[in-house]
Design brief:
Elements (H helix, E strand, L loop, with lengths): L2 H22 L4 E8 L10 E6 L7 E4 L5 E6 L5 E6 L6 E5 L5 E5 L9 E2 L7 E2 L6 E5 L1 H7 L4 H5 L5 E5 L7 E5 L7 E5 L2 E2 L17 E8 L3 H4 L6 E7 L8 E9 L3 E12 L2 E12 L8 E13 L4 E15 L5 E2 L2 E2 L8 E15 L5 E18 L12 E21 L2 E18 L7 E17 L2 E12 L3 E15 L5 E15 L3 H4 L7 E2 L7 E14 L4 E20 L5 E23 L2 E16 L25 E10 L3 E10 L2 E2 L12 E2 L2 E11 L4 E8 L7 E3 L2 E2 L4 E11 L2
Amino acid sequence: MRFSSVFASVFSLFTIFLTTIFLSTIASAEIKIKVVDPQDAAVAGAQVQLLELGKPTPASVQSTSAEGLVIFRESASGSYRVQVLAPGFAAETLDLSPTAETTTIKLRLATAAETVVVTATRTPVPGEAAGADVDSLSSQQLEAMQPVDADDAMRFLPGAVVNTAGQRGGISSLFVRGGESTYNKVIVDGVAIDNPGETFDFGTLPLAQADRLEFVRGAQSTLYGSDAMTSVVQVWTRTGSTPVPELRFGADGGNFGTANGYASLAGAHGRFDYNFFGDQFNSNGRGVNDAYSDSLEGANVGVAITDHVGLRVCFRHSNSYTGVPGEWSFNGDPLLAPNPSEWSHQNNILGSAELTVAAPSGWQHRFTGFDNLYRYTDVNLNSSSASYDDYPDRYDTHVNRVGFEYQGDRSERTWAHSTFGYRIENENGVVNDLDSPPPAPGQRLDQDAYLQQQFTLGRLSAIAGGRFVHSSAYGNTGVPRVALTLLALRGGELFSGTRLRFSYATGFMEPALYETFGDVGYGYAPNHGLLPERTRAFEASFEQKMFAGRWALGATYFNNLFHDQIEALPTPTGVYQFFNLEQSFAQGAEFELQGRIRSRLSLTTVYTYTSTEILENPQCTQPNPCGFPYAPGDPLFRRPKHSATTLLSYLGTQWGANLGGSFVGRRPDDAFLSIPNDFNHAAGYARVDLGGWYAINSRITAYANVENALNDHYNEVVGYPALTANFRAGVRLRIGGD
């Protein structure tokens, strides 16, 4: 299918919808709603649903402007019910009648189960109705944590195991529910930024100006396609909301030669809102070749074309440089010298334009064009004879993903909601060894169609959906998902609600470009006939609310079968080629306690048990048996059996603070060394982070953060020592704004 014909069809749809909008604005009654947060600041992007009392079909659904406003113009007069679903807050409901006055609805903070989330269903719903395990970090929590990159924040979320190869900027991977580090979908401002089939590096994803982060555990390929095998991570950038332009700037510094400076200009005027920002971070690290530098520039600009039509354009450019010292210290034993010559460079650009249409009655439409350019270079001038993983190379990757997506939402009844869409994406890139020209380009065109239906019938909620994908590279595939949630007992003051949930889903992940098209050298050859890796996932959970819903105790059992996993086998010519060979299994349980100690003091603590096993690996059969940990019956790399996280947050008006703990047990690993006593595991560790801010006045805020506050000496990836205790302190200032 040619892109020109696709875009022509889309613009024809634009014309039809815009005509519908203008015709639907003829009305006689007006209801004006303003949505604010607990500090009375405007809340943009909240979904506001208007229901005429006595009627089962919503009269209208809109999203708040940058100033937190929505205006309903209805042809009927009478009594209405307004429901506000703002991500990061509790849902609010209010009965009212048309009036000339603006009705202000103040949102409140809630427990994680009650907090409104988006990622699990692609539309705002309370967490307890999402049909999946969802956790989030609000803008206030991120301000207290002050994470440099996403791995600093992700490690304190339930069920997340983060493995960083040493210092800042080292490759930082995420393992969820026994899955591979390639099984995570990562989305920023509506754009997928992970490369299918490859490990996403959370250590080079800056969170400056992030408004919210959501983390969904479980297979979600039905809604998000490739890579969403065990989790989806989504980040949104802040929008401007103050009528008077607001300039924010600041700087901080700390040990290891760390320095950070940033600035943003944001605001909202009439129908326009804007946020332009920049950030520069530098650190020398604590050892040889540990330097890390990252710069970020971006913009988030929106315009309300009419009361029902909005356009938003987002842009981000991230440019990072990392020294790579290689393996040298193994669980405290410095057996090798650090490599002073290897370095890596990333230069990434993403852009998106989203047109939203809230009409006709009960309908919402999103048309999104996106473009993501990923550039990665790794250069190693020297080698270590003791390590199979450290040899001279010049590795280069350029991947471009451009496409278009339509998402439609229809609230048929107060108890039924449909989500459906179509996505077309062209993925092309060059993956090769610069010392082995010529480069080998690859390209594939994917077209996806998906549908999801949500029902709430009394105490029972159901979510069912499916996705059909046609790829020019591997043909057709389909993935279904169903989730059922039952409010088994309503309870009382002490035990205030018991919920049961079950879900079944399948997921898939496209092969990496280098596995199907690229020339990575070193005796590896691509395979054009590769199929996607797949998963079958079961979940069953129990949640008991207590003390009038202020606390919740939950347990989730998960069972994942991964198959058609890609491994390399030697061919008769001696070259290794990729095939769909391996099968593995993971099961375990998550036990979670969450609640509010006080109105502004919240606690979430989770223990996770994970058991993994390789079921099939044809390359580990006679006459070529494999040693640990590759053979059937062995556990999977870097998945600890025992892990836990704790996050304690206080979010006040004068000050805020957080205490985060990540506790990870011993796990299998491999140092890939030829020296005696090769290391096959990484020792357990406990990492504790502290952070907080204090408003000196309305314009000046001081803050400080301490990472690895217990000064634990540990390896997240065997051979790569993590940073010891490190701190940053600084001041941010605000000029203008409200």
